[in-house]
Write a structure and sequence with these properties.
Mean pLDDT: 85
Order of helices and strands: HHHHHHHHH
Largest sheet: none
Oligomer: single chain
Number of strands: 0
Structural class: mainly alpha
Low-confidence stretches: 143-154
Number of helices: 9
Radius of gyration: 19 Å
Length: 154
């Protein structure tokens, strides 16, 4: 007969093991965002099924691995567009996107304006700001999150 606490200890150990593997996946996405990555390849790298990885990643980080990857790509694209020396198409491919249409659609969803408009607007607004401040004030916020953010009046 098994000790009653064994099952809960085993479940907790599995959960912690999954969190370590999820962190490895997130770190890999952060490092290799410009490479072709898909959920199956990410899952194989941590010995999980694609479905289990997707469910657990969403539980841990609030979004799917693909959504997280696209957010990283869009953040990098924003930095490249701020630099101003690459076209939107060049930026699209530099961050690992293979479709300009998908890139533009996702960029617009996350940032609120198309990449070409962002490039024009941000050039004037951020001129002279330190890069660390620019990164913080231009960080993408999903439109659905922005709808719920109410200004706080004090």
């Amino acid at each position: 007969m098994c000790h009653p606490g064994w099952a809960s200890a085993h479940i907790e150990a599995q959960r912690l093991s999954d969190l370590v593997r999820l962190r490895r996946v997130r770190d890999r996405i952060d490092r290799e965002y410009a490479q072709p990555l898909d959920v199956e390849a990410l899952a194989r790298g941590v010995h999980m099924s694609a479905g289990h990885l997707s469910r657990q990643f969403r539980r841990a980080y609030g979004e799917s691995p693909y959504s997280y990857l696209m957010t990283r790509r869009i953040e990098r694209a924003m930095a490249l567009l701020r630099r101003g020396d690459l076209s939107v198409t060049e930026v699209c491919f530099a961050v690992g996107c293979s479709s300009l249409g998908t890139f533009s659609t996702r960029f617009t969803e996350l940032v609120g304006v198309p990449p070409s408009v962002y490039r024009q607007q941000v050039a004037n607004v951020t001129r002279g700001m330190p890069p660390c401040v620019v990164k913080e004030v231009t960080r993408p916020i999903r439109n659905r999150e922005a709808r719920f953010a109410e200004p706080q009046l004090v």
